[in-house]
Amino acid sequence: MTTKRLLTAFAVLIIMWLIVPTLVIVPMSFNEAPSFNFPPKGFSLRWYENFFTDPNWLKALFSSLQVAVLTMFVATAVGVLASLGLSKVKFRGKGLLEGYFLLPLIVPGIVLAVGLYSLFLRMDLLGTLPGFVLAHTIVSMPLVITNVMASLQGLDPRLEQASSSLGAGKVRTFFSITLPLIAPGVMAGALFAFVTSFDEVILSLFIQSPTLQTLPVKIFNSVTQTNDPTVAAVAVITMLTSVIVMLVAQFATRKRKRPVAA
Amino acid sequence: MTDQTVTGGIAAGSAPGAGGGTPRRRIPSNWRTLLLFVPAFVIVTLFFLAPLIDVFIRSITDPKLGLQNYEWLFTTDANIAVIVRTFGTAFIVTFVCLLLAYPYAYLMTIVGDRARNALQLFIMMPLWTSILVRTLAWMVLLQDTGPINGLLAAWFGIGPIPLIRTTFGVALGMSQVLLPFMVLPLYSSMSKIDKRLLPAAANLGAGPITRFFTVYLPLSRPGIFSGGVTVFILGLGFYIIPALLGSSKESMISALIQQQISVFLMWGQGTALGIFLLVCTILILVIVSRFNKNGSLFPGVDK
């Protein structure tokens, strides 16, 4: 019993270490003084005002949202198709194919970033919207596939069989039977893809151009080159965006258990 | 998996309504299922495999065909120092994560469902915030005029101790980010350990320390392996945290790659470093998956 109590105390410390340090950024964003010192002095919204009146920051925010939404659609569409394929066919080397799709998760980001930079340089894709979306799709799609595969594994194959024996074609069966049943997994995958793209830094740093920079790139450049406390406000905004999206994803996956595994 | 195969190809034969069951129809239906892979395959090949091949080709052709870039890599003392530092930092981070994650994961196996879900949620929550934002927060906390040094000065009258721009700062930030990747595989392997084994060992006269080292620890080895490998290889490739929490004295392989390519425009040398990092990652995965039979190539990737 005492062991359990000790372990609990230890776990609380770990949780605090994981979560509390990040929160210092919140009071920093309301700092009155134009410095990065903690604790902040006074209360002001000037850094938020700075952010929302600076066309450069707003442009980066808009680019980030644009890239993240497009990435979400591309990665989800392509990832769902691939997951369906992986769950339906059986052939030698299927495991290899699945591994191939998941490989971007373990390859060091910097190596892929350099490769994409080199490739995009020649294809004239540097700092372009399609370039960003394709690069982000590569790292987002594995998350869609793992989520959708998990949903598909809990799916009763007899439901699809019943549908097709009642005369529904493959496409109709997919849209009226399969998709609604795996919707929570698809939804979670899509949200993961959005957040991955919205937070992606290394690839974006390499494929950026002065005309197209995502928010994390702008934050990184601002931190390394200037001492502008506006980044604290920007950080809080991006943090809130990711947390809200992930809460929705969490909610979606929690609901998953009821319809699919019933 | 096998059940689902039925719906794919052979179902046409067993379900008369669907496909008529003629052999003529069977082949195209299976062939059409393969079409589902095409978009993913094309995207991954063109924008993942092709860039990596491009990196490799550049490393042996830039500026001229040959292995001179690899020779440079292994004969320059500064490079060796960076490589040793990268592996050293990744190792420290892995060790710290293991020490912190082990009791946490163990606690997850002995509490009720609700507490376990809460513990799991708390571990996942940091992943909802980008590495960049969390690193920014550490920058604020660790700076010489930051709150940690402030407390040290107020309570113990010492300081300011350099925390930022040190290996300590880098390891602290990296461990915080990578801890979840250690806890989850550890928990999944510990939850499979038969709870009756420890009392059994106690019955046979083993003390708590013997029980832990001869029974529990060996049984949790798959989790230690897959968590350790994930943390280690992710740690090898870190760029953002060393760039912001370290100094040029703490730079790791990633920073060196970035520097060679973006600053010195030495594509050959930068890409050779990249291939070296990639090969190390793959080698570690292959070696460990050999030792760890039930571990897959993708340990705990569900981030």
UniProtKB/TrEMBL annotation, chain A:
It is found in: Cell inner membrane; Cell membrane. Coiled coil: none annotated. Keywords: Cell inner membrane, Cell membrane, Membrane, Transmembrane, Transmembrane helix, Transport. One of its GO terms (biological process) is transmembrane transport. GO terms for cellular component: plasma membrane. The chain crosses the membrane at residues 7-30, 65-87, 99-120, 132-152, 173-195, 230-249. It is a multi-pass membrane protein. SUPFAM superfamilies: MetI-like (SSF161098). Residues 61-249 form the ABC transmembrane type-1 domain. Belongs to the binding-protein-dependent transport system permease family. PANTHER family: INNER MEMBRANE ABC TRANSPORTER PERMEASE PROTEIN YDCV. This is Spermidine/putrescine transport system permease protein. It comes from Leucobacter exalbidus.
TrEMBL record, chain B:
The keyword DNA damage does not apply. GO terms for biological process: transmembrane transport. GO terms for cellular component: plasma membrane. Residues 1-24 are annotated as: Disordered. It is a multi-pass membrane protein. Keywords: Cell membrane, Membrane, Transmembrane, Transmembrane helix, Transport. InterPro entries: MetI-like, MetI-like_sf. Residues 83-288 form the ABC transmembrane type-1 domain. The chain crosses the membrane at residues 34-60, 80-107, 119-141, 161-185, 223-245, 265-288. Belongs to the binding-protein-dependent transport system permease family. CysTW subfamily. PANTHER family: ABC TRANSPORTER PERMEASE PROTEIN (PTHR42929:SF5), INNER MEMBRANE ABC TRANSPORTER PERMEASE PROTEIN YDCU-RELATED-RELATED (PTHR42929). This is Spermidine/putrescine transport system permease protein.
